[in-house]
Specification:
eight-stranded mixed sheet; 405 residues; 10 helices; alpha/beta; six-stranded mixed sheet
């Protein structure tokens, strides 16, 4: 990490979560002068008790993490996702015989659908990478007061100094202070659901297969994880339920919790199920900013959008913001152009917002279509799943979009 005390930067990123910190690394790898600010100390973010999630990293996101220098710093083994099975059913019942299966033949040659990475491992890799670049300054813990001018942004740091940048990037998450300061409107979509996140050990190997099982109360996903000496076969689960039911399931004893998990796996048989470690529970909602840009300001990641986890694409959409914005900023840097120009920001929004809104709409429709027990809708969606399964080119188009390649 640079120890230089600069007073002017090409840009300042507010928020050192996975999206903001990855963008900082990607830009600094190309010599862009970046200031990264976060109110929390970075080492504390590595505490596994803070976040029990595991991320499904799409191939396009993995390539970007590699270019940022982060991927090679991952401390643990990443689990490739080689196949995906999508099914529909009810708890404690066999899955519908109509299903959708994405196999190795649907992915571009030599590529996996994605990679499972534990949140803590990604954080450790990011923190290590942040220290590798001379043009990157990290101020954490610290906060900044941002004042926007026609040709620059002034940032007064709580630690005492005042610096300037050509562009501010809001990466502070769903409750973005910079978004609010810019008076950018926000639309929220409540789902009245909670997501239960846990890790399980199972008797039989998962073979790199991921399961998405749609149920009336919400989707259930089982995602393959790398094994450990103690638990050679592990998976992460993300399980959505209505508010009251989710709280009850979250607090069940281990043996009953394991039975309820098995009841939601449809026809998949991984043998005995054993919950390991602690469980987490999160409220589920979607939201989107009315615009991603304002004068000298760009929103990325959850500051711009948040979607239902039904397709496991939340972080990958944030990483697509990083890919699009980094490409534009690196190009501007190479031509010594203004990184905060209106033209650049407009191009960023055009590259990202339509696709992100389409993904938000798709996940919202999926949740509403599959999150009920209407027999007519059940039949329609099962036929839809089976229809996609029957057309290889349609499957491959879905896969390429989800992989970001």
């Amino acid at each position: 990490m640079s120890t230089m005390k600069k007073t002017h930067y090409d840009l300042c990123i507010n928020g050192a979560g996975p999206v903001g910190a990855t963008l900082a690394c990607r830009l600094a790898a190309e010599g862009v002068r970046v200031l990264l600010i976060d109110r929390a100390p970075l080492p504390g973010m590595e505490d596994p008790s803070l976040d029990g999630r595991a991320y499904a990293i799409a191939e396009g996101s993995r390539q970007m993490l590699e270019a940022a220098g982060i991927w090679d710093n991952l401390p643990g083994v990443s689990q490739p996702i080689r196949e995906i099975r999508v099914s529909d059913g009810r708890p404690h019942e066999a899955a519908s015989p109509l299903f959708l299966h994405f196999g190795v033949e649907d992915a571009p040659e030599g590529m996996n659908f994605g990679w499972m990475v534990e949140a803590r491992d990604l954080r450790v890799a990011i923190n290590q990478t942040l220290g590798q670049y001379e043009t990157l300054d990290v101020r954490a813990p610290d906060t900044g007061t941002f004042t926007f001018h026609p040709d620059h942004v002034s940032i007064r740091l709580a630690s005492g100094s005042t610096v300037t940048a050509k562009l501010a990037i809001a990466a502070e998450g769903r409750r973005s202070p910079l978004r609010e300061q810019a008076r950018i409107g926000l639309t929220k979509i409540p789902y009245h659901q909670y997501g239960i996140v846990a890790t399980i050990a199972h008797e039989k190997p998962h073979d790199g297969v991921a399961l998405e099982h749609f149920l009336p109360e919400g989707p259930f996903a089982r995602l393959p994880m790398p094994g450990t000496p103690e638990h050679p076969h592990r998976s992460a689960i993300v399980w959505a339920e209505g508010e009251g039911r989710a709280q009850r399931f979250h607090s069940l004893p281990h043996d009953v919790f394991a039975r309820e998990i098995k009841a939601r796996m449809g026809d998949e048989d991984l043998g005995a199920i054993t919950p390991i470690g602690r469980r987490w529970i999160y409220p589920l909602s979607a939201q989107y900013a009315q615009t991603y840009i304002a004068p000298r300001l760009a929103l990325v990641g959850d500051a711009a959008h948040g979607i239902h986890p039904i397709a496991g694409q939340g972080l990958n959409i944030g990483f697509r913001d990083v890919i699009a914005l980094a490409d534009l900023l690196i190009e501007a840097h190479s031509h010594r152009a203004d990184p905060g120009s209106r033209d650049l920001l407009t191009r960023y929004q055009r590259r990202t917002r339509p696709g992100n809104m389409a993904m938000l709409a798709a996940t919202d429709i999926l949740e509403r279509l599959f999150g009920n027990d209407n027999p007519i809708l059940r039949r329609v969606r099962d036929l839809g799943i089976a229809g996609v399964h029957r057309f290889p080119r349609l499957r491959q188009a879905f896969v390429r979009r989800a992989m970001g390649v």
